[in-house]
Amino acid sequence: MTITKWVYTFGEVAQLEAELDGSWEAVRSLLGGKGANLANMTRMGVPVPPGFAITTAACNAYLQANQQLPEGLWEQATAALETVETATGKRFGDPQKPLLVSSRSGAKFSMPGMMDTVLNIGLNDEVAQGMAQREDNAHFIYDCYRRLVQMFGSVVLGAPDEVFEDALHNYKLNHARATDADLTTEDWQQVTRMFQNLVKQYTQAPFPQDARAQLRQSIEAIFKSWHGRRARDYRRAAGIADDLGTAVNIVTMVFGNLDANSGTGVAFTRSPSSGEPRLFGDYLLRAQGEDVVAGIRNPKPIEQLETEMPDAYGELADVCKKLEGHYREMQDVEFTIEQGKLWMLQTRDGKRTARAAVRIAVDMANDALITREQALQRVTAEQVNTLLHPQFEPKAMEEARSQGRLYATGVNASPGAAVGQVYFDADTVERVVKESGLAVILARPFTKPDDVHGMLAAKGILTSAGGATSHAAVVARQFGVPCVAGAASIRINLEQRSMRAEDVVVNEGDWISIDGASGDVFLGRIATRAAVLDEQSELLILLEWADEVCAAAGMRAGPDGWPSRGLQVWANADYPADAQRARQFGATGIGLCRTEHMFFQENRLPVVQRMILAQQPDERQAALDELLPMQRKDFEGIFEAMQGCPVIVRLLDPPLHEFLPDEYEVWKQVISKRVTSLARYLLGQETPDDIAELERLLARVQELHENNPMLGLRAVRLSIMLPQIVEMQVRAIIEAAANVELTGTRVQPEIMIPLVGHLNELNTIQPRLKRIARTVMDEKRVELEYKFGTMIEIPRAAITGAEIAEAAEFFSFGTNDLTQMTYGFSRDDAERNFLLKYVEDGILPSNPFQTIDRDGVGQLMRMCVEGGRRTRPDLEVGICGEHGGDADSIDFCHLIGLDYVSCSPFRIPVARLAAAHATLRHRPDN
Ligand code: PEP
Ligand code: MG
Fold first, then answer.
1. Which residue among 453, 471, 894, 917 is the active-site one?
2. Mind spelling out the 3-state secondary structure of 187-198?
3. CA distance 121 to 253
4. Measured from the CB, is residue 262 less than 6 Å from ligand 1?
5. Ligand 1 near 815 CB (within 6 A)
6. pTM of structure
7. Average pLDDT for residues 750-768, to the nearest whole number?
8. Of the candidates 207, 219, 534, 796, which lies 20 to 30 Å from 163 by C-alpha distance?
9. Could you tell which of 648, 653, 710, 718 is best to mutate to test the pocket of ligand 1, judged by most ligand atoms within 8 Å of the CB?
10. Torsion angle (degrees, nearest 10) of CA 322, 42, 284, 125
11. Mind listing the pLDDT tens digit for each residue in 491-547?
């Protein structure tokens, strides 16, 4: 039987890659992201301390075998250790020339701070003594040793971190040492002993002196931590599968805390906040490992390293450039400088803000590091959504400044404006948000992986310590939560549940506003405003590339075999101002203009009500004649704004009662009038004359009452029963189109009849409306290109698409209603009463009103497109339900060969990118 190879030294990466058929993806799966990249850097000639990786397969085997190391693993690890000993000329556990190693976890996908690290493995009493005697840095050696005992005690043996922190704190108090730097060699020796006693107290066993036992236990602890709570929480939030397992990396220790010529740091090859192409990061001299990332000490900006250690800085800059060129992606690196010599300890694709993601993608494509298509694939629809998130209203922010409400300033760690009540621990934040739905800001001295659930529930995150690469900053950026990190003037008192800066105390529950783009923290609430697209030039460029991808796809066959015209993005817009915004955001048509919204504007409602209440046809016509010029003016505005793009205008959709007062309210008024009238009558006074009018209103409201109005007399049914209204609307549309066309601006009106269920409904009303269009064109002496079409909102219409297309020249899926009717859900009632539970309990995979239910509603749509295009191959088909702005639904719309998706103007940028993603994902040559 061949024994599986569980361990690979960094030098063996080429061989492994060849074994895996050259698949780097497979190497990453097996060695984890960190291990694969360390090995790869070794191959590239980047300085990496010698080491080896234990595979993710080993982790899974260990966990499956009830925490037993799989056969051969330990022997292979020992052999790999020997290779490292040879490479370094040191021996593990040898007091004369000891090799010290670190043990770090590394899953396939980077999970910052999630898994555990142990440094300085290999130190024990004898080795420490040996080193201290031989070298003149006993102080440093005992500092390392106490760190090992502390990390091993907490990470491997499970003693709480605070036990050690508190003991050290008390030791310093008792010995009058202000900071760690004041501790002498003897102090560190004593602290080490104290820590060893704590380990014994806590675990009932002495701290292991055998270097190999330390190593073995560390490896097992990392395997086990894959199932720890914080790892699970993070995986759930980031959508990482539970069965990937983690690799373990054993790497020769290099010491950033050795002397004044040593240090450690983290750097991004470009700014993770803005995307600017320059080194960005933090470092600390005389520091080891986690000191920078943990955000406990305030680090220095990387630019300063150029002056403090120019050679090391120069080499770091070169390495970063080389790495970026190799990975063609912004890198996030960890490095250590030991006595002036640079060592790289990690590289990975850097997490970034949405703004930086866009800028980096566009810059890299412009520099030919990646293609435009790759650039598009590197930005998610959600990131674009984040960019359209609110910012502080500039005026309101200025006002807050002039009122002295600027409270503190920290690092602008993750952009976006957040306003909320401040709470000081993750559990409370999560609870308050769950119970009350309030906007909350989480404020902590610094965050740890255990805080992730509160960070995700909060609207914003504020820390008083740590820099742009602290845990808080990294997690916030990844999840698009605004964050201000390291606002050092703030002192947070977790016991008193308050914070203080410049003598101003903010208590738990007080409102604050944080600006993750500038790093400012304000007292109280500041108004926010929507982001302005014009200010985001890289995003505009990226979206143009997205449009090009879709347009180019239009020249090929679509994924389902239909001739594809390329998925376009149109807008749902009801007024000229909306249409203008839609154009600015890049819409190439209007997919839905809900004309009834115009009826609610300004002084129109009384006219509409008069039209509804009219008892005689000429009375009704008079009201409609008054409405006609108003509607015509709106349509003219929309056609002008759209400059020749198609505009779909939907004829009246809701039931008439929506324009009348509520029956209950009218009843109340009538009763009150009746009572007054009776009183007056009894007193011999005249009765008020307006009661008759009110009684008439009540009678009409009652007449229009239906048990289930959304399934009653509305839309096409109302048009058939009361054609005058839609006749007026068609006249207004065609007159407006003719007027605009006559000014030299092209128009493409498309008139949409809603809620059709049977072809005969269309056959009844459409010819009548077409005659009006003809009459208007004759009157105006102009020929217009226009269409009549219908919405597909009723399952019967979808099923009989082939027949409906005999009359309709276009289809538009009204998936809001189509979903309601397919599921038999009333949306409002469902969302209020049970839909949340359905989604939470997995009864439904997602809310079908947000993401198209592909298996049900989607199948109806597919069937309808096929039927419709069988009858009319050039049938234009789109979607105007809210799903038109949802990335997953857009993907489906592309798959079934729709011509456009139509969504609200603010979703247009998201939809444009999602349309390009769908096009690239389903390209026939993929
Ligand atoms: C729809 O039903 O999807 C639609 C767009 O119409 P409305 O939302 O106006 O009912
Ligand atoms: Mg509808």
1. 471
2. HHHHHHHHHHHH
3. 9
4. no
5. yes
6. 0.79
7. 98
8. 219
9. 653
10. 180
11. 999 999 999 998 899 999 999 999 987 889 999 999 988 777 878 899 999 999 999
